[in-house]
Amino acid sequence: MHRGSCLCGAVRFEIEGQLKAPDACHCSQCRKTSGHYWASTDLKEADLGLEGSENVTWFQSSEGVKRGFCATCGASLFWKPIAKDVIAVAMGAFDTPTRTHIEMHIFAADKGDYYDIADGLPQRPQ
């Protein structure tokens, strides 16, 4: 069982089973919402046990995607394609060890100029 929460604890979640290897997204939207780059794991929305859903505020950041934040503390928690039954959960929100490692970098062409991606993992430009 993997558990996590926002900074203030108003939103809590649990996920059973092994987590999919996360990716790191360097697109400008992910950098602006997270303050750096966004690392998340994808799962079926039905596999996410969520407490405090009334405290999640959703922002539609593009035509097909919305992002979930804690309405109290502002923590970035979720990335959700509107037309699909999947959700991405922020790796930084987990309370327990995830036993995962980043699998790849996406939107690497859009990364910030203040850091390098030098871990040897695959990089997709977009």
Automatic annotation (TrEMBL):
UniProt key word Isomerase: no
UniProt keywords, alphabetically: Lyase, Metal-binding, Zinc
Single Gene Ontology MF annotation: metal ion binding
Residue ranges annotated for the CENP-V/GFA domain, each copy included: 2-116
PROSITE patterns: CENP_V_GFA
InterPro entries with a match to the protein in the record: CENP-V/GFA, Mss4-like_sf
SUPFAM superfamilies: Mss4-like (SSF51316)
Family indicated by similarity: Belongs to the Gfa family.
Protein name, per record: Aldehyde-activating protein
Organism: Allosphingosinicella deserti
